[in-house]
Model the fold of this input.
Amino acid sequence: MDCPDCGAATIAFEIPGELREDVPGEEPTAALCRRCLGLHPTPEVEASAEPDFTVVSDAFPQGEDEGTIAMVLAVGLLDSFALYRREIEALIERVERAGTDPLLVLDRLADDPGTEPTVDLRRRRRHLEETLE
Done:
């Protein structure tokens, strides 16, 4: 599946059951754009059994655990921070519990020349930091 926003390749993945309550919609899978970092539901696409999000950016935690998927979902929802603030905060808490610094991930994504996020990650990082204090 290509990104409907920018046309770049995406990486499809299954949303673990425990994370579905923190994601809008009912779809069991989603796809993250490798370029613009947009998140899209994928009702008709088969998700990768073991997605490797480091193909998008080395900023994402390695491995396939709840913290990595939570970080991917949070990044994908940042374009609608006001609308999904509660969901983003819950996902970020899961990332922190898994041992990853989500603000550092956002810094690294903002500096990654291989991505062209549609959202200003530095500005969203500041908003997120303020809400987490």
User: Anything to note?
Assistant: The first strand starts at residue 10 and ends at 14. Strands lie at 10-14, 29-33, 39-41.
